[in-house]
Every structure is written in structure tokens, then in C-alpha cells.
Design a protein that fits this description.
Helix content: 10-25%
Number of domains: 1
Structural class: mainly beta
Number of helices: 2
CATH topology: Immunoglobulin-like
Radius of gyration: 20 Å
Strand content: 35-45%
Number of strands: 8
CATH class: Mainly Beta
Order of helices and strands: HEEEEEEHEE
Shape: globular
Distance between the termini: 69 Å
Amino acid sequence: MKVNRLLFFVLIIFTANTFAEPETGSLAVTFTGFSSADGKLAIAIWDSEEVFLSKNKAPFRSANLIIIQPNTKWTVENLPYGKYAISVYQDENNNNDLDTNFFGVPDEPYGFSNNVQGSFGAPSFEQASFIMESKNTVIKIKLY
């Protein structure tokens, strides 16, 4: 009888942990480095290397914000704890694209979490990633 009770309680604890809601927090991001207040900020949160900067797969979360100089702030509520990378660009002409020159170099301000820049192209997910593991995470991203 005692063995059955023990197994019952172990099963309840296992089941409760299996179906528990993931922990979430608030991510507050401050963006700086705008060349002007023209256009909007196009922001994407990526949750894996496989989809990072993909044109065929949607980011985990995204937003378009009106630019407020000198700092534009964005808060994401209920973001599950995990590993993320953020990409952002200032869509100065509101065409929903990061405009580039003939060589593929961006013509509009852009940035990534950790304020990383790639050597010959965009940084990797690993370079731009950060760990969301607290109720209130604050980061800053400078556009270049």
C-alpha cells in the first residue's frame, strides 16, 4: 500500500512538472544611433540559429515602431526564458526592406543584440544571442 502511494505522488509531481507553463519575463530594449527620425524601426526576435535572419521563416516575435529620438524603447512581455538574438533596421523609406548598395552593404541603419557586427556580412546567431533568464531583462542596441 505504501509503495502505491509513493508511486501515485511521484506520478503527480512528474505530471505537474511536465505540463507547467514555461517561465517568462519582460525584455526591455533601448535602441539608439538613428540617423534621423524618418521611417520606422523593423525589429525581429529570433529563437534559433536555423531561422536567424531567414527570409523564408518568420521570427519568433517582430514589431515595427515609430522612431523617437534619441532613444526608442520597446518592451516585450511574457517572453519565455531561452536564447534569443535581435535584428533591427531603420526602414527610412518605409518600403519594408533593408536597402543595400550594389555590394550588399546596408544603406540604412541596422543593428543586432550584443551590438555585434559581422566581418563580411551579418553576425552569426551565436554572436548576437543572449540568454533571457530573469523576470526583467534590459538590453541596449546601437544602430550603425
